[in-house]
Amino acid sequence: MKPTARLHELGQSLWLDNITRTMLDDGTLAGYIGELSVTGLTSNPTIFDKAISKGDAYDEQIGELAAAGLEGEALFFELALADLRRAAELFEPVNSRTGGVDGWVSLEVSPLLADDAERTLAEARDLHGRAAPNTLIKIPGTEAGRAAIEEAIFEGIPINVTLLFSSEQYLGAAEAFMRGLERRIEAGLNPVVPSVASLFMSRWDVAVAGDVPAELHNRLGIAVGGRAYAAYRNLLASQRWLRLANEGARPQRLLWASTGTKDPEASDVLYVEALASPFTVNTMPENTLLAFGDHGEPGDTVPEDGAEAEEVLAAFAGAGIDVGALAARLQQEGKDAFVASWRELLGTIAEQRGQVAQPAGG
Q1: What digits encode the pLDDT tens for the residues 73-105?
Q2: Is 296 helix (H, G, I), strand (E, B) or coil?
Q3: What pTM does this model have?
């Protein structure tokens, strides 16, 4: 049995953190589903920027959309939705077999709206209405994002909460999710609204690499993950959640994001092996998925209490690392990076649009 299949057997869903039109056209994604136990997919502005800027796979559609007068964000979302509808179709059998637990793709609202709950919600409604049914709409877990998340869940829109870095930020997202469900139950609506909460891992270790002794290198992200997993399991055992479950609600699954190793001296499957955990999702960059499929070793799963997480976090505190302050900084930096990626993406689309709109020989 391949390492990816063994990890799936432990109870974790493996999603691909990538999408290109080429991997849809040449069967690569279908191969990952069949051979590497991939059961879902996530996307972001950087992923689409790389996909659109390389080769000519998008030129024909860009030309058609340009001729129809589309540009900027409107043109981008048409390109993204075309790819994600095809990917969603590949995952539909998993989505159907699991009753909507697995088999999802994700599409992000404009990062420019991260601090505007009303506009975020409006865009989430619009994208949900145009996307395949098994599409999660990504909303950042910022203060404004949490307000939009609660309303979106109340309206029955499946949500991937992104840009979470700590157990406190995760619990804020979970609170918004549960409030949305409680309001649905009070209104007599079906409480089954799929959602995941995406906790970013490797950026923690990049942030402190030059500030801690060697014995603490590449240990902070995993410790933060252990603390968050304990918070997740405690929430699922809470009286509040059990009341919701009794009404038919399903949990918002914890998702491990940014699980590609950034340190070239560390294992290329470090975060995947360390974060094996039942009833969670790990969305992996393509090279990380392939590396794990080749030489990964799924070992023990993360204990429900997070194992040594608190001990390791205490060591970081002793080394002068304020984890709470760093979590806030990382979320802000992540938000800023998504905005920068979004603007680069729109610049790429404008350039491609200009090129394909040029007459032959012009």
Answers
A1: 999 999 999 999 999 999 999 999 999 999 999
A2: coil
A3: 0.96
- φ and ψ of 69, to 5 deg: 90, 5
Distance (Å, whole) CA 263 – CA 234? 32
Tokens (6 digits) for 190: 């079906």
Per-residue tokens: 188: 């007599």
């302050």: which residue's tokens?
325
Burial letters 243-278, b for 16+ CB under 10 A, else e: ebeeeebbbbbbbbbbbbbeeeeebbbbbbbbbbbe
Active site residues: 138
Partners of 195 in the beta sheet?
Answer: 159
The 3-state DSSP class for residue 84 equals helix
Strands 253-257 and 280-284: parallel
CB 103 within 8 A of CB 91: yes
SS3 57: coil
Residue type at 313?
L
Please report the domains of the chain, with CATH numbers, ordered by start residue: 3-356 (3.20.20.70)
Tokens of 209: 């690499």
Residue 356 pLDDT: 81
Quote the CA–CA distance of 157 and 128 in Å, as a whole number.
7
